[in-house]
Amino acid sequence: MAVSTNLLLTEKEMIHRSQNDELLFYRQVAGGEIDAITANCNEHRFLETEGVGTLSRDPVLNLKYHFVVTAALVSRICTENGMEMEMSFRLSDYYIQKLDYLFSEKEIEDWHNKMVLDYTKRMNMLKQNSALSRPISECINYIYAHIKERITIEDLAKACGNSTSYISRLFKSEMNISASDYIRKVKIEKAQNLLRFSDFSMVEIASYLSFSSQSHFIKLFQDETGMTPKKYRSMYYGTHWKGSEEELV
Length: 249
What we know:
This protein is an all-alpha fold.
């Protein structure tokens, strides 16, 4: 009887540890803890089966079901911690819809890692923005909302109701980078995602992000990443779904 009791206690401890690990994971996403979530992804924690329920006998379908559960929980906890609800749900829908184009456990794991890191980075930025002054927080929101357009310091100044000289000085002071360099950095990050997860050409990406020309886009991309867009795509292209105009968001 003692053996049976000990076994039950052990099982409860295993479940308790598993629940604590899962709760910690979601808290780290919501807290914007990029290093912790990156480590979680590198350790392939999403593929672990111990203490995880089986939702389908088909291993690929089972992983897709768990992906949907993770997406729903991540979306909810990020909303509860300050992410705008529509943005959170739109992200969740976006990642779940791509599951139809994934056919192996490795593809699903890679897509899961991209999703949780996307949420984590957005929460990290939200956390950083909360410590910024109102004008700079508004500038950053404007940049992300208008990333497809050509953005100038005049646009930022107008958006937050301050002079260009004031915004230039304040941006550099709070962000440790000039506004123009920050805009370029965000555009290049968006271009990296499009190169990795869509089939759009260099010309289409350059045009979409309002670079003055394809050659200008290539030069800035190489300055920022150390490689050409073509080389970057050849190294990091990793999914199989095909893009469409509606997905350039």
